[in-house]
Amino acid sequence: MSQIKYMLLTSRQGKTRLIRWYEPFDAKQKSKILREVAANVLSRKSKMCNILEYQDHKVVYKKYASLYFIAGIDLEVDNELLTLEIIHRFVETMDRYFGNVCELDIIFNFSKAYSILDEMIMCDGSIIETRKDEVIRIVEAMDAIESNDDLDRVLS
Amino acid sequence: MDNYKVLLLFPESLKIHNRVAFLSTVFQEQYDEKESIVRDVRWRTKYYDIKFDIYVDTYDAFEEWAVNFAADECKELRDVLSGMIFVFEDKNHEPVIDCIKGIIDETFEDFTNKFFIGCLFNESTIIEDDLYELNNDLIIQNLEIVNWFDKAGPSMDRVGSERIKEIIDVHPWPCNAQTIKSSQEHVDSKSNDLGSFIAKLEKAKQKYQTINNNTEAEEFLESMIEELSDMIV
Amino acid sequence: MGSLRNFIKDVRASRTLAEERAIVTKESARIRTRLKDDHISSERRKKYIQKLLYLYILGEKTHFAQVECINLIASEEFPDKRIGYLAAILLLDENQELLTLLTNLLNNDLNHPSRYVVSLAMNALGALTSPELARDLYVDIKNILDHSQDTLLIKKALACAAKLISRDPSLLEIFAPYASKILFDKEMDNHGIIIGTNKLIQSILIHSKSYEFDNLPEIIDKLSALIPDMLATLQHVNSGLSNLRYNVEGCLDPFLQVELMTTLRLFLQHFPEKTEPYKNNYLDTLTHVATYTPTSSNSCTSVLYEAVRTIFSFQAEHSLRVLGINVLGTLVAQKDCNTKYVSLNALLDVVSIEPQAVQRHRKFISRCIFDPDVSIRKRALELTFGILNPTNLKELISEILVFLEKAEENDRGLILYCADQLIMVFDMQENIDDSWKLDVIVKILKSVGQYISVEKVTDALIMINNTSNLDHKKQVVSDIVNVALEKTTSQVLDENLAWRIVSVWCIGEYADLILGDSKFSETSLTDYLYKSDSLHRDNSVVVSYVLMAALKLSTKIDTKTLIKKLREIIKSHTENTNVMIQTKAVQYGIIFNEPPAVKTALLEPMPIFEKKIPETSAAKTISQKYSAPAAKKVKKKENDLLLDLLGDLSLPEPTTPSKIPDDLLANPKSSATLQQQNQNILNTPTFTRNPIEIPPNSISVHSSDTVEVFGRVELTNSDQNREITLFLKAKKDIKTLQILIAVPKSQRAEFGPLSSHMLSSGEVARQSLKIYGPGSIKLRVKLNINSIADQFDYKFENRT
């Protein structure tokens, strides 16, 4: 069962590139988590495992190029190894969508990154679609409606 | 608007061909020993296209240079810089790095929107893992140490000159905060072929001519340019 | 300065960027102003929101845009809606009143002709549902489930239904029928649909507790009828027979497999009686998954790991559990550190139930003790202590000793843990020979003594003291003192205080044993005490030991000048600012001047010292047969050598000249001030209480800001009479602590006293209880901490 509490993308330089909360944390908790979890993850050595305990939950992370993908998960319910797969799936899907995704893509197209994430994970951090091509199909279809809509509006 | 400014600092001891290599690899620019300012360096990415001037300086003793740079009269310069790249050869890198940290912490009023890169130009290198740990302590200063001679390993990490480029790429250039693309900027615009593009352009022209109100026409023009240019990215 | 001047000139000549920077830093303020303009086009509005979301990621304040997202959602244009819904998901949460504004819009969009608009609306509903929204909009979700043929919408509607139930459990009646309807009707090829159905069933099972109507049994009956299908689907997918497009590195849709197992597990947890008819299917399928899933990639191991977790949720199925443990054994042996981490964790959960099965994998567990990752080392060590038994004891402890020798500063926590555990194990293992135990302890002190707390040193002293084999004792003492005296080969670091204390103590207690040996002279021993005193004058613990050793040594040597030197050590502390040291120095000074016969009588060798074994530390992991029965021998207040010594002082000579203030020792009430001081002497913080240890195999049952509660079921012979111990570990200082515990009506409980009603941060209180009556052990615990109530329920797994 996946019940992700938050998904966070942080750059090697400690800059947040994407944040998505699936549990209603209050503002104070959010800024604490952003600060502490990112710092914790960034200070891990490369030989260490990708799972750590933080406060009342676990944090699973994986580094891809210059970005750390970080997920907060439930201590009991979530399967840490599967969470790594979910992260990997998200990265692969973005990679296919953007064509060799890099940090810059996510900075400038964060709304697309969110769109992909939202087709994969819904509600309280539950995975709902596990196929890359299905996710991309939906996101691209929405992109197409959008660009047609925009042009039509400009020209109307 | 004038160009952004980036300061590049070489040690006097760094061989000319190495300086040439640095400028051409990172910026695709020539190096001319006599000219301390390289103008109109074009920086193009998938998402933006900007220009900056590179101020190239050299130092004999880094501490001494740092003292000069910290002087009051350099404040204007410091305020305007978008970023600094320090190249150094020292085998013992710690004092240099401490000195760079000092410059950032003590002489800049606000360094949060600037990038700082320390480029270690020295083949007897620190290993990647150590570099990583070292950099973790420098995040606060927006400083990253890059090893020029690092070879890309199995991790997807960019290293050496590629990493320097990446840091410049993701720097929040002030113009970008305003031009951050809205969601209709889509990666895949295959669906819009040239024919339909021209047809729509034609229609747009006609519509533009029917607008009487000047401001309204301006606004229409602006949005149209943006939408249409999105189609041809 | 040449070039820098150039640059400054250049900067002055150009238009500075400072202006532009100022704009950027004020970007969000600018947008805020612009958005207030009612006349801006929706195009602009959309762009501002887009920028604002960018600033949101950068951590800027953006709450003022909340109303704007609603405006965008209200637009008829798809691009507006898309960005509006994204903004709503990011900027709003279910606690905001603004949500009422959203209800109508969602209601419209859930019925929109465009599937993508419906899909976006469901994303927002899934993210933001409040109980009110759930009640207002469930009809729309039901509508989609009834009429839509679109798999995109159906899978999202199922996920939404699960979420709505979590906000209003009474809705489970409405949505339950769709679980069976859809699972049977739709093509099994689409895994999204199956996952959605699983989400729905999971939500129903989890929230059934809060469902208040009496048709629950029928609902659950219908759902449980799906169990065989789910088991079949699991086996089908696991065998790679489903849609191959879901393949992930040699594993067919691990996401779906894990969801299926979660659902099956939830049935076991919430309605075990419903799974009874399918027990064999369960066993077969789980055995299949555990046996045939390879370990070749992370996606495969994630499935294996989930299978094991499901197996462990099965109660009282020994053979299956052993299979699960063997799977974990294979996983521990893998290279991947994440796999190692999770499997060690899982093994820790079961080690108290199946120590035998776990200890078969000790080779790979031991290997993890040396892993580069400290969190893996920690778990491997915990597990190693969990599987210790009389047969593997020496083998495993020698591994731990290797670890300690290699350990570094940042392993401090682990070193302390090992020392604590070893001493506890030794206390309980009476059958192992003392000489070996003592050797181990001495080795530990030697390699990591600088990290070890003074309390643990006292334990070592007790062990030396209690060794009955006189030859070995002499050997050990001689070795300890020899290493300490040796100047050239610095085998022991100066900061190794534990070693310092032990050697000082040995000199005081056993100088007479070793002085026959040519390695030692009266001078070298005296000098060592003198040196220790001058090196550690600030450390009251070391000084206390030096004082006592000086006093004792003075009765064991003959050289007058050296005796004088010892007296000087003591004398030099009579003005010590530390009142405890001062009092001691004065007392010892008085004793020092007594005639030799009196002195010798006073300073008799220490008796065999009996140490109280904490009741609960009679851990059964160490093999039940061997564990010392709890509270077997508690003669004295334990663990305080100084107390013991002083306590003896008054006994031999009750008529000792009145200079020895015997009321200090015998009659506390007669002098309040002195008694106060006496307390101080005896109660150095490090010596006071015997801290309660939480046995390594206790399960964490509850955790809050102030306290973490661990529990363990002690072994008992009959199912009708079981003993539970709860450990409450304070996370903050607790001034008042109360605990109330209730058990199901079918059972009766008998409670022991709570060991402490006041805890400092990190300390542990113990509560034991006996439960009479059949059935699994469910506790409802109510804590009252600093007058704040905190309640939780916990169910212990049944153990056989």
UniProtKB/TrEMBL annotation, chain A:
A Pfam family reported for this protein in Swiss-Prot or TrEMBL: Clat_adaptor_s
GO annotation, biological process: cytosolic transport; intracellular protein transport
Cross-referenced PROSITE patterns: CLAT_ADAPTOR_S (PS00989)
Entry keywords, A to Z: Cytoplasmic vesicle, Golgi apparatus, Membrane, Protein transport, Transport
UniProt-listed InterPro entries: AP1_sigma, AP_complex_ssu, AP_mu_sigma_su, Clathrin_sm-chain_CS, Longin-like_dom_sf
Domain of life: Eukaryota
Principal subcellular localisation of the protein: membrane
UniProt GO cellular component terms: AP-1 adaptor complex; cytosol
Family: Belongs to the adaptor complexes small subunit family.
Protein name: AP complex subunit sigma
Organism in which the protein naturally occurs: Kluyveromyces dobzhanskii CBS 2104
TrEMBL record, chain B:
GO biological process, alphabetically ordered: vesicle-mediated transport
Keyword Nucleotide-binding: no
InterPro entries noted in UniProt: Irc6
Keywords on record: Chromosomal rearrangement
Coiled-coil features, chain-numbered ranges: none
GO molecular function, one term: protein-macromolecule adaptor activity
Domain of life according to the entry: Eukaryota
Function: Involved in gross chromosomal rearrangements (GCRs) and telomere healing.
Family the entry assigns: Belongs to the IRC6 family.
PANTHER family to which the protein is assigned, alphabetical: INCREASED RECOMBINATION CENTERS PROTEIN 6
Protein name: Increased recombination centers protein 6
From TrEMBL, chain C:
GO cellular component labels: AP-1 adaptor complex
Subcellular compartments: Cytoplasmic vesicle membrane; Golgi apparatus
Principal cellular location given in the protein's record: membrane
Keyword Protein transport on entry: yes
InterPro entries in the record: Adaptor_Complx_Large_Subunit, AP1_complex_gsu, ARM-like, ARM-type_fold, Clathrin/coatomer_adapt-like_N, Clathrin_a/b/g-adaptin_app_Ig, Clathrin_app_Ig-like_sf
Chain ranges of the Clathrin adaptor alpha/beta/gamma-adaptin appendage Ig-like subdomain domain: 691-797
Keyword Transport among UniProt keywords: yes
GO BP, sorted A to Z: intracellular protein transport; vesicle-mediated transport
Pfam families in alphabetical order: Adaptin_N, Alpha_adaptinC2
Annotated keywords: Cytoplasmic vesicle, Golgi apparatus, Membrane, Protein transport, Transport
Family: Belongs to the adaptor complexes large subunit family.
Protein name per UniProt: AP-1 complex subunit gamma
